[in-house]
Amino acid sequence: MLHTLMTSPYQCDFALLLRMLKAGDDLLLLQDGVLAALTGSDKLALLAASSATLYVLQDDVDARGLSAQISTSMTTVSYTDFVALTVKHPQQMTW
To answer: How many alpha carbons fall within 13 Å on the CB side of residue 9?
Structure first.
């Protein structure tokens, strides 16, 4: 399943998101969801402990001026990669 976090991780049911992530799932952080990828954040530590593969949309990181603050453990992707993730996962959940 592809999970997309579009809102701030501080304005959603982040605990439920973590419980829903399973092995084989991908999580894409976009829009204000990119805040969960900030180096040293408590949300990043929780995501890193999950079994999902984590991605962050580069355009949204750039739009927020956060490039230097995004964890290097995150895989940055383009919109083309985003489309590939949606093709890979017929089931999707938006947070």
So the answer is: 22
Strand partners, 29: 5, 56
pLDDT digits (tens, 9 = 90+) for 30-88: 999 999 999 999 999 999 999 999 999 999 999 999 999 999 999 999 999 999 999 99
Across the strands, what pairs with 2? 26, 92
Per-residue tokens: 9: 């991780």
Residue reference for tokens 């956060």: 66
**Global confidence as pTM:** 0.94
- Residue 76, φ and ψ in degrees, nearest 5: -85, 140
Q: Which domains does the chain have, with CATH numbers?
A: 2-94 (3.40.1260.10)
Instruction: Name residues whose C-beta falls within 8 Å of residue 25's C-beta, 6 or more positions apart in sequence.
Output: 1, 2, 3, 51, 52, 53
